[in-house]
Amino acid sequence: MSAKFDGDKRQILVNKVEKNKDILLEMCARLVQVPSESPQSDTREIVNEIKSILENIGGVEVTCHTKEEPIVNLVARLKGTSPGKRLIFNGHLDTYPVGDASLWSNDPFSGHTDNGRLYGRGSSDMKGGIASYLLTFMIMAELKDSWSGELVMTLAGDEETMGVKGTKYLLETVPHASGDAMISGDVGTAKVLRFGEKGLMWIELQATGTPSHGAHVHKGENAIDRLVEGIDRLNKELGLIKVNPPKEVTEAIEKSSEVSESYSGQGETEVLQKVTVNFGVIEGGISPNLIPAKASAQGDIRLPVGVKLEEVEQKIKEIVDSIEGLSYRIFRRYEANWSDFNHEIFSLTAANVKHITGEEPVLTMRVGASDSRHYRISKNIPSVNCGLNAYNLGGPDEYIEIDELVDLAEIHLLTAFDYLQGG
């Protein structure tokens, strides 16, 4: 499906973004300058900052919603000239921690610009995306007689910790947080549009043994040995689980492989199509010369489309039950999820990426998680990820390219108009 605007109208919209480039950069810098690290995910101050921006946009309704302090979520709503479809812009306010501030070249919350870049924690993930939303709201409000329906922005405070108190809570409690389609400006690249995500299972292994002195190995049973055997078998055997994805998902992943891996790293294509395991926490023992009685480990298991949680848990149970003294518990889980990428929100977004960047974007799955899954799993709302490239994501000197931020704002604005223009 081609985009709906003719060339002149499209250029008018692009010109409006270009004219307001300084405002876009100022808003992004203001957001970066307000710390909202997770944990604690204290988003009270940044919500107030965003409210102060939205209060100057005519016709925008703003509400705040809190399931648990200090996590505050914000919903903004703008109505067009008549009833119609509802498009959601979803995003998150929390960021990775700064870490060791001495490793940064400047203040992590400076929001300063240099050599075509804007620096600061959260600039790419995802305060640049939120600034793009805000400029889109400004321009859509100016031109609200030209479109129908509603534009809604849902900003969550705990995406980095799985969104239960943020996006999921909003979908459960705020009717207009749901819509007919959703765009996420979460970190990524507009050249690679994401239509789905792998599932997740977080597991804890617990091993028990018989304590004894380390010299008397014949008298004890080592809990760490049992734990290591379990970790080793899970790593090897879960990756061999047969995957049966829909043909169109496999074809999309394979077709996009070259472009997507140029941004996300070689090997992404394989990882998207298999179960992967990573144990990131391990504890056990109190002294090198004692046989440990207890040991534990926590792991992250990711599931591709084509494998269900129950299949993976069945295999986990089979492995764990075969190892004496080993048990497990699952403390977080959700299924792999994807949207029908034949929906118009994908074709419109892709057309606008090409119009603005001159490059045809590819469509594929996402290895990591975002709040888009809540829209897909809870509400079956077609959801596309279209955000900014990540530079030094999670590390010192995180930054975005200013030109890419301007491009993203143009893509978001054009797509919102295209989707809502006809009601």
Provide tags for this entry:
single chain; 423 residues; alpha+beta; Aminopeptidase; Alpha-Beta Plaits; 2 domains; six-stranded mixed sheet; four-stranded antiparallel sheet; 12 helices; 18 strands; metal-binding; ArgE/DapE_CS; succinyl-diaminopimelate desuccinylase activity
Task: Please provide a written account of the structure.
It is a single chain. With 423 residues, the protein is an alpha+beta fold. Helices cover 37% and strands 24% of the residues. It has helices at 7-19, 21-32, 44-54, 123-142, 167-173, 223-238, 247-264, 268-271, 309-321, 344-357, 372-379, 402-421, and strands spanning 61-68, 71-79, 86-92, 113-114, 117-119, 150-156, 181-184, 192-197, 199-208, 212-213, 276-284, 290-291, 294-303, 326-334, 337-338, 362-366, 383-385, 399-401. Strand 4 and strand 5 (117-119) form a beta hairpin. Helix 1 (7-19) crosses helix 12 (402-421) and helix 6 runs antiparallel to helix 9 (309-321).
Strand order of the largest sheet: 1-2-6-3-7-17
Question: How many domains would you count in the coordinates?
Answer: 2
CATH superfamily of the largest domain: Zn peptidases
Helix-residue proportion: 25-40%
Q: How many DSSP E strands?
A: 18
Mean pLDDT: 95
Please, how many helices?
A: 12
Strand content: 15-25%
What's the CATH architecture name of the largest domain? 3-Layer(aba) Sandwich
Protein name: Putative succinyl-diaminopimelate desuccinylase
Domain Peptidase M20 dimerisation: 196-322
EC number: 3.5.1.18
Keywords: Hydrolase, Metal-binding, Zinc
